[in-house]
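User: I'm curious what two different proteins look like when written out as structure tokens. Can you demonstrate?

Assistant: Sure. I'll show them one after the other, since each token string lines up with its own sequence. Here's the first protein:
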Amino acid sequence: MLTATRELPVRPDTQPQLAIALIVAGIVFLASFFGILTRPVGFLAAVWPANAILLGMMVRNPSYATPLGWLAAFVGYIVADLSTGGNFFVTLWLTTANITGALTGYLLFRLVPESDRWLQRPSSVLHLFAICCAVALAASIAGGGAARLLFGKDFFSGITFWFITELVNSLIILPVLLTFPGFRRLREHWPAGLSPALFQHALPALVLVASVGLAIMLGGPGALAMPIPALLWCSLTYKTFTTSVLTMLLSVWLLISIPANLIPLPELPDPLRSLDSLRLGIALMALCPLTVASINAARVELIERLSRAANHDSLTGALSRGAFIERSEACLQANRDQGTALLMLDIDHFKNINDRFGHAGGDAMLKEFVVLISRLLRPADLFGRMGGEEFAVVLPGLDMIAATSVAERIRQALEMRAIEMPSGGEVWATVSIGVATRAPGEYTDFDDMMLAADRALYEAKEAGRNMVRVGARQPEATSPTLN
């Protein structure tokens, strides 16, 4: 008999929140310190990644965006600037402007669909651009006046430089943070070693590097656009995160190489205004490969969804009958040198469950049955729904003894499991299983194995159900019908 339990009230633990605050403050401090070190004499920092990093961190981790988290970011900005000799009043002003921009972006990102936050739809990059413009505008309005106090520049010059810098940094850095899949998934997809396939996959990135070298050799204004075709090739080949990283690296290189004269350009009449125009153009140019990568990601996701709908049962998620048979035949062909087993499973007295609890109860039973069995199978095993309450499993590499052992574990697992019904109550169900095997090197097609497993399943039903039987492969004119 099951009894309900109440959870006791738990005393809130402040340690995780304090740890989060330290993480936020530390990251903001390091990013701000880097920006301060790159600040040119007599003006605001041309490279200021702290705001984009803070915004990306808050969007990726909403649990960080607490009053304590924002306060920690504020402290990180203050400490970084004061430790490098900043004036307290000016530091407070600039920090308020930085927080204003990041908070504006965070609130706007909460209004867009989740798929747009991770750049998974064709319109995602447009939403990203609009939010970055709003972030840059909010921060520049809040802090642009500090340019007169700091460097004797007029308000318009301060707000213009701040807006461009904020927009450039956001467009370059934010996509990397928003599309980052996590270190675990990166390790899973990291190549194990050198191979021709790896070289072929890396070819677009290598062409991108070569195009950068060509741009340095030729120089001129057109050199800025030379890497774009290779970058578009990368966006059609790699995932959105990889494209974002390559786009960021290229943009950062261009932003550094132009002032350093690594790419020879003609003499410009107004160097400062022309430099701002080039920086803004580079950032806007980065939108093209990001848009292509987002469209490609949406296309891949759509194909995967269509493939799953075509190959999987819509109710249980198991392979459909046609997909199961097709993959099983391919599995038999590929594993001819080792044993293979086939299990046919039929839930006992399933009609009684439908009659007692309705079709909703029967559907619940089927779904729980699939979840239960899937946990007992290996990744290489095939599991499909053949129709109604009948399922099948292909076990590559197993002989009769091992396959029978797996079938027995499946039978016992269902026998010991109470299935909750949507209308209330529990059901204890059982399953009958027929087993057929093919020895290593033996040629037996899938139809013969299905006939043998069906006969074994019929024998298990005739013998009283809730048992496992092993079938022999002798052809029969007709096959029995299960009830």
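Here's a second, unrelated protein for contrast:
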Amino acid sequence: MAPAVNLTPKTRGRLTASLPEDRLAELRSLLDTRRKGFSLEAPFYTDPAVFTADMEGIFGNHWVFAASVAEVPEPGDYVTVDYGPYSLIVLRNDDGGINVLHNVCRHRGARVLTEDSGTTGNLVCQYHSWTYNAEGTLIHASAPGEADFAKGCYNLKRAHSREVAGLIFVCLADEPPEDFDEVAKIFEPYLGPHELAKTKVAYQQNIVEEGNWKLVMENNRECYHCDGHPELACSLFPTWGLTDGIIPNHLEDVWQRNLNAQDALEERCRRYGLPYEVVEELDTRIAGIRISRESLDGAGESFSATGRRLSKKLLGDLRDFRLGRCSMHLQPNSWFHFLSDHVITFSAFPINEHQTLVRTTWLVADDAVEGVDYDLDELTHTWKQTNLQDKNFVELCQRGAASPAYESGPYMKSEYQVEAFISWYVARMQEHMA
């Protein structure tokens, strides 16, 4: 376990300007009096002022997963990423690198690109045709009588970006958290063999959940509710998150089957030189992480009804389909499943205090042919259904948090990762508001 990190990323503080002092005092009090081991007080899920604070203290300060390299494979390819008040353009430049630009024209603030994704040469604002190159430099803003216009003062604003093991992260802070370098070194060896640069997007699903972003993340961080995921339970052991001593009687056989499958998986990982150990530093780092390689039920290959592979093409330099799943959680907004035959990325983008966009992307080998090597409906079935079920669970919690009868409830032992997420969130917000 890594030691606690005494590091607070720096941004231009806007919270004190946007919220009156009495509301700031309320927020500080809610954070300082948070009861460990219990869910948050209702305002954390329902109050627009708390959402404003979250967007500055969390999403304005920390590294956020935005997309995979498969979504922007060629120069000029872009995706737009929106969360809270922010809109970003994630663009592959001519040198093969990534530029992240604020999607706000420097003329009168119009959105420059309005599609979720696409390919572009220059970036042209459709309002008055101000034109920027891939670096965000203003190259055209001509108008009668404006010969002395200083174009160099009005380039698009930029954000920080990192591309690690095929994943693209963005950060809006003036000085991003430095410990992300250490976290990248942790997960690169796990993800590298899957070679995301040699994958393509098979499908992407966007769901708007009527729930606060923290409820979305809390729901993801536990499997206490996994009885509500019948499709997923065919391949994901429902004992995930449980330990000896807290196994219910009806899951004892499943628990033993899980242990046997994990032993066999670890033997294969040692044979192929793949890391599999659990690294769990969810609330002891600024960039909290949990990663491991874990067995799947049935054939142990993929998220199917039988656990068998869903694509005939192995990813990267992997040599065996029966490698379970490499599962990774990153604070604050993402989780991932890396399998031998495909990868699934998940990202949560807050819209407002009661809505969150959940984006799920399925990646397959770039030479896999739909209808020949994989069936798209079969590939996406388990997690499409699971996402809809999770949407329902999150929305049940959001409606409950809005009730006057709501009060914080205790987390169970198997929900320790939910507690770790909330502990991380509270610590980061306290640092920001200090």
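A detail about the second structure: The two ends are 26 Å apart (CA to CA).
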